[in-house]
Design brief:
The structure is a single chain. The chain has 3 domains: about 1-100, 2-Layer Sandwich (Potassium Channel Kv1.1, Chain A), CATH 3.30.710.10; about 115-135 and about 165-215; about 220-315, no CATH class. The protein has 17 helices and 3 strands. The model is unreliable at about 130-165, about 335-345 and about 350-365 (pLDDT under 50). It has helices at about 1-5, 30-40, 40-45, 65-75, 85-95, 100-110, 120-135, 165-190, 190-195, 205-210, 220-240, 245-260, 270-280, 285-295, 305-315, 335-355, 370-384, and strands at about 15-20, 25-30, 55-60. It has a 3-stranded mixed beta sheet. The protein has about 375 residues and is mainly alpha-helical. Helix 6 (about 100-110) runs parallel beside helix 8 and helix 7 (about 120-135) crosses helix 8 (about 165-190). One of its GO terms (biological process) is neurogenesis. One of its GO terms (cellular component) is cytosol. It comes from Cuerna arida. InterPro entries: BACK (IPR011705), BTB/POZ_dom (IPR000210), SKP1/BTB/POZ_sf (IPR011333).
Length: about 375
């Protein structure tokens, strides 16, 4: 209750945040001790060795509304998201400030509101966080200043936020990876509707390539994928101020995207009315592929069509076999205490088993005759 009353309050405020680029900068009052106790990034920003002790902190790369929701969560933990763009902007702010609780709120909202019009937007946004975590290139998301040392004299505020940045990072990565899995499952199972939506034209080349090369992409026909690629490369040429020539469009697509459709699964009519008419394939490629479709392959194939490529272009895609992850019940944090207890129990059981399996030593010592018998056997083996 005490923190609720301090949210959006100038009372006791000792720092002001100016968020967003000019002229759309938002102003927020804040309290150093509360924010430092609630969040490790704010602690580094406001109380760390490299912290700015001035009354104003400028933050240019976060949306004003998203920062408002971030502060609301840290003070009150009652954030309500109203749209996909707001959820994505807030997810960026939450990830940047290592706020795992708010990341979970955003991920759950996005997962519950996926549809054929927004799944590609969510997918492209979330895959950035997953790739950054995998490569450990996290300079964009974590404050450069180290966290301030614990001060027993500072005021303590109970806000229910995890103080361990590593735990936060692992939790956020798990949540985003799970959401990415669900996005790809949605795209796989509703491929025709997703690829027909205009949002496919806004994807980056890498994001589109990852989708087009999926074996589990359940398109009703490979011509659906080719049509999406043709629309995308035309839009990409316009964005790059390139001529809409065959050379420019082939260059924009690149080899992987150009040969991501399984052309040899098309009918002759689909190939003639789509890829052949588009001009994206050269004459040698068109002739070689058409010959394979008609079951009369020519001896001199196009240089770009290796036997491995031909084999891939005729291999049917498999049906999606994965299932969506239930994010509401996903536990992304490791139970270290339970794991340690389990490990100790296993070691104890193993020790007991080894003790049981070990043969008991005889209580009485070997007699002299027994010793001489063994000695004779050893000598006979040596001089044999």
């Amino acid at each position: 209750k005490r923190l609720d009353s301090l949210f959006d309050s100038e009372a006791g405020s000792d720092v002001t945040f100016l968020v967003g680029p000019e002229p759309e900068t938002w102003r927020f009052p804040g309290h150093r001790n509360i924010l430092s106790e609630a969040n490790p990034v704010f602690r580094a920003m406001l109380q760390g060795p490299l912290a700015d002790s001035g009354p104003t902190v400028a933050i240019d790369d976060v949306d004003g509304k998203a920062f408002d929701l971030l502060l609301r969560f840290l003070y009150r933990e009652d954030v309500v998201l109203g749209s996909i763009p707001t959820a994505l902007a807030t997810l960026y702010a939450a990830y940047k400030y290592l706020c795992a609780g708010l990341v979970r709120t955003c991920v759950l909202y996005l997962n519950d509101h996926l549809n054929t019009q927004n799944v590609l937007q969510v997918y492209q946004h979330v895959r950035v966080y997953c790739s950054h975590h995998q490569t450990r290139d996290l300079g964009l998301w974590i404050a450069s200043a180290p966290p301030a040392p614990e001060d027993s004299t500072s005021a303590s505020y109970s806000v229910g936020v995890d103080k361990d940045p590593n735990d936060n990072l692992d939790t956020m990565s798990c949540l985003c990876s799970s959401l990415l899995h669900n996005c790809l499952h949605f795209i796989d199972t509703k491929a025709d509707q997703v690829l027909a939506d205009e949002s496919v034209e806004d994807l980056t080349a890498d994001a589109l390539r990852d989708i087009a090369l999926r074996d589990s992409l359940a398109v009703s026909s490979e011509s659906v994928l080719f049509s999406a690629l043709e629309r995308w490369c035309n839009r990409e040429c316009k964005r790059g101020q390139l001529q809409l020539s065959a050379e420019s469009r082939r260059s924009v697509l690149g080899y992987d995207l150009l040969f991501s459709p399984r052309y040899l699964l098309m009918s002759a009519h689909q190939f003639l009315s789509g890829p052949m008419q588009s001009g994206l394939l050269d004459q040698a490629e068109t002739a070689a592929l058409m010959a394979h479709i008609l079951n009369s392959p020519i001896k001199q194939a196009a240089p770009s069509l290796s036997p491995e490529t031909i084999e891939r272009l005729r291999t049917p895609r498999r049906k999606p076999f994965s299932t969506p992850i239930n994010l509401s019940s996903t536990k992304c944090r490791k139970d270290k205490k339970g794991s340690s207890k389990k490990t100790k129990t296993m070691k104890k059981q193993k020790k007991v088993k080894c003790k049981e399996d070990k043969p008991e030593s005889p209580n009485k010592k070997c007699s002299g005759s027994c010793f001489l018998e063994h000695l004779c056997r050893v000598l006979s083996c040596v001089f044999d």
